[in-house]
Structures are given as structure tokens and as C-alpha cells.
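2024-03-11 09:14:02 INFO receiving multi-entity request
2024-03-11 09:14:02 INFO entity count = two
2024-03-11 09:14:03 INFO echoing inputs for audit
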Amino acid sequence: MPLGSSDVTTDIILSTSGLTKEFGGFRAVNGVDLNVKRGTIHALIGPNGAGKTTCFNLLTKFLPPTKGAIVYNGQDITREQPAEIARKGLVRSFQISAVFPQLSAKTNVRIALQRKRGDSFDFWRPEKVLRELDEEALHLLDAVGLSAFAALTAGELSYGRKRALEIATTLALDPEMMLLDEPMAGMGREDVERVEALIRKVSKNRTILMVEHNLSVVASLSDHITVLARGQILAEGDYATVSKDPRVIEAYIGSGGGHGHH
Amino acid sequence: MADIASDETSGIPVAKTDRSADQLHRNVLIGLALLLAIAPFVAYPVFVMKVLCFALFALAFNLLLGYGGLLSFGHAAYFGMASYVSAYTAKNWGLTPEFAILSGTAIAAALGLVFGALAIRRQGIYFTMITLALAQMLFFFCLQTPRFTGGEDGIQAVPRGRLFGLIDLADDRALYWLVAAIFMAGLLAMYRIIHSPFGEVCKAIRDNEPRAISLGYRVNRYKLTVFVLSAALAGLAGATKAIVFQLASLTDVHWSMSGEVVLMTLVGGLGTVFGPIAGALVIVAMQNYLASLGAWVTVVQGVVFVICVLAFREGIVGVVAKAIKKPL
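2024-03-11 09:21:47 INFO inference complete, emitting structure
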């Protein structure tokens, strides 16, 4: 990679330097320097126990790093609270589908749209003031194929639809960058294809960083791949480069593989 | 993705369910108001007032647990503290009942702000334990300051006074209308809170806190706000109770009072709008009409609680709501 040229630095939306996380002496993430280019789909892969999820939780501030720095859009966010980075346009998804199960699908999306009003501490106003957001909520549900399920509570939706709802909710914030934690985890083949198409669709004008086990999804979606093993970066590049790398093959076979196991 | 829409589209009423639920709730609220209007003519007013005070207390608790997802096991602190303040200011400062009740409510809200700010730093069972510990500290504070609380005797013979300095409340009927008005105001306030933009965020946090955080909500501020609102409503109930019974005592701040409000809420239906009212009615009625059983009332309550948890976890109103397939 042509590091050092001035173009590259402005093109980087999220970068880490020497990112390290220790759990009682065990280094789950060890000195990771990650650079995510603006407008790309970047995948973070690696065998089980490679530190992908820990790395992901560090980036989204759900865990504080032991050492190292995280820079987003030129701002140091290493010590920020998770809610604050969401307000800066860096929004994450979760491995287990993250919906509000007792609320309707429409309300799920509307909760995110409500953020546009700023903080919602107005407990004295009727819910009616939110109805102006309904149209946009239904539009977003339509975009992920859920318009028929708007009135259903999210808990009643099938697994694949919960994921679609989650994506609609995230899109409601119109984030500059989305971090997806194993978006295909636990999905059947049909759902995988749907969500894959959806991710491709929403990646326009956005940056996406995803952790994913399903290598065929990674191959078809991502522009750039970072392979982690034992908490460190093992290889980087596009799928063709990375998949031929003997160290990557060794890491996957050596650990029993993370390929397609769910 | 458009293809999934086609297979199950048939007749899911979208916004209709919202509207019909609103209509139903409005009807229930009107029904309750009518019931309150005739209650003093068919039942003993003091009994109804007791039910209303505890129903308001349970509504406050349900606001926190049912809609905020926060289980407080120290709600007696706000109920009892307000009861003391209301009784003290009415008796020793000669405040009119409306100001005595308001000052009790305000102190409960302030106490909720302090205790809540400490408790929300932890989650789940730790949150609950902190609320219990703080309430126990308040109990011992009340026990050790007889100059303010009257110690074991409590504050007795609290004057009911004259509302706005005009209407004599010594008559049970006159007092009843005040209590009924306070109850309805509290119920409507709670109803508005859970159906406000703020209430929507609270429900989201209750359902999935990490997700609410990831959407950029500063969840602790919402938790603290709902905690203070709940403490204030619990205080309103306690302060009113002190005027009705002309008594504030250690029973009001005792941990068993915290337990009783959990029981009322669960029996009536956790997370339902009207459940706590039904729960309070059942528990208070049991205490009154089974009083001849003495200590056995506690055993009966325990049995009711076990049956409730085992057989119908949704509570009385929860079961009804399920049967008619509409939220209540």
C-alpha cells in the first residue's frame, strides 16, 4: 500500500494505531494498525479467537482499549462514550439481532428517526408529535422489504426480517459509516442473499466495516480485507491476494477454521 | 427484498391498531372516572381513598419497572419520605393540605434524584440492591431522628386542614374528591409520560439498552429522568396518604412497603397501563377484609403471589389484554 502520500490520509475515515486490549494479561488485540478507506466495504476476518469481536467492540467504544488510539474523521475518539460516537455518524450493528422486541417495526425505526429531534426528554408532549416521522419510517421499512410488517412487534418477526429491520433502523440515522458485526450470523442461504444485496445497496455513499465469518459473502462484497490472527494483523489486501496468502491458509487450517461454521 | 413483502401481506392493519388502542384506553379512562364518581356512594370512602393512594404508588412503580425496565426495591423511601414531609409540614408548620402534599412530592423527587443518580451507575440486580440499600439507610435515618419522624410513634393526628384555606377536609366525602382528583391527575400524567417521545425512548432502553446506546441515546440521562418522575409520583401517593390517614409512620418507609408495591404491580399486570390499579385494589381489599386472619394475611398474600407468578404471569389486566388481543 502506498502509505505516506497525502491523498491516503484524507481518504482514511477510520484508523487505529497500536490498538491493544488485554484481559487479565491475555492480549486479545495486540497492536493493530487498521486503516479504513472512505467509501469502501472493508471486511475484518480471521479464525475463531482471532480478536475480531474484541477489535469491533473497541472501535465502537463498547470496550475501552488498554493502549493505542482510534481516529475517526481526523478526530481522536479513543476516550469517547459509545453514544457519542453514534452522534458523530459511526453506527454499529450487533451479532445477535438488535431490535426493540416489544415495539412495533415502525416504532423501531422511528426511535432512530427521533434522534433528529435531538434529545427526547419531553415527557409532557403526546406521542402525536412523532407522527410526522411515520412516513419516513414506513419508507425505510419499504426499502428493506418490511412495509407489510410495520405494525407487528419486532419480536414476532423472523430472524432474517429482524436483521432487515435492524439495518432499516441503522439507516434511519443516515450514518456516514456503519460497523456490522457478523451480519450473516445464523442466517439461512436465502436470507444471506437478501441481506447481501441490501448491504451492497446501502453501501453507496457510505463506508462499511464488517466482521464476517462467511467467506463467500466477504469475497463478493468487500473491497478490502484485513485478516486477524491471535490479535494481530496477519495479511491485508483484496480477496484474491488474501486468499492465496499461505499464512492465511495456515491460520485457518491450523485453528480448525472459521469457514462457514454457524 | 421486495419479494418478502408479497408472501404475507394479507390484511395486517398498520396504523389501525395504534388508533384502536388509543380509543380503548380513552374509554377505560372515562370508565374509571365514572367509577370514581360513584364509588363514595357505594363503598366506604376511606377504603377507596386507601386503594387510590396505593394504586398511585403502584402506578409510579410500574412506570419505572414496566416502562423503564428498572427494578427498584426501595420505593418505600420516596413514598415514606413524602409521607413524613407532608405530615410534618401540615402539623408543625400549619401548611394547607395542597402545599403539604406538594412539599412531600418535591422532597421525594429530590430524594429520587440523589438515589437514582447513584443507583443507575449499575445494572440489573446490582441496581436493585443499591436501591434497597439506600432505602434501608433512609429507614434507619427515620428511626434515629424522632424529633422529625416521631420515631416508633410516627407523626400522629395530622390535621387534614382546609383545602386552599377554604374547604374543610375533615369530612371524608370532601377529602375523597381531592384524593380522586389527585389520583386521576397522577394517572393521566403517567399515561402521558409513557406515550410521549420520552416514553418511546424509555421503552427502547428497556427492550435493548446497548442498541439504544448505539443509536446515540445517552441512556443514563433517560434512566435518571424516569427514576425521578417515578419517585415524584410515589411521593405524591405517600404525601396524600399521610393526609388521608392523618398519620406518617415507619411502616411507610419499611422495606416491606417496597415489597408490597412489587406485589401489587405483578398481581395487576406489569407493563400494562391499568394493571397496578387492579393489583392495588386486590391487595388492599385482602388486607382490609381478611384483617381478622391476623398474621395469616401475609401467608394469603404469599400464596396469591405464587399463584400469580406460576399461573398467570401477565397479571390480572395482562390476562384480560391477552384475551381481547389489545394492549391495556
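2024-03-11 09:21:48 INFO post-check: Residues 1-16 of chain B have pLDDT under 50 and may be disordered.
2024-03-11 09:21:48 INFO post-check: The radius of gyration of chain B is 20 Å.
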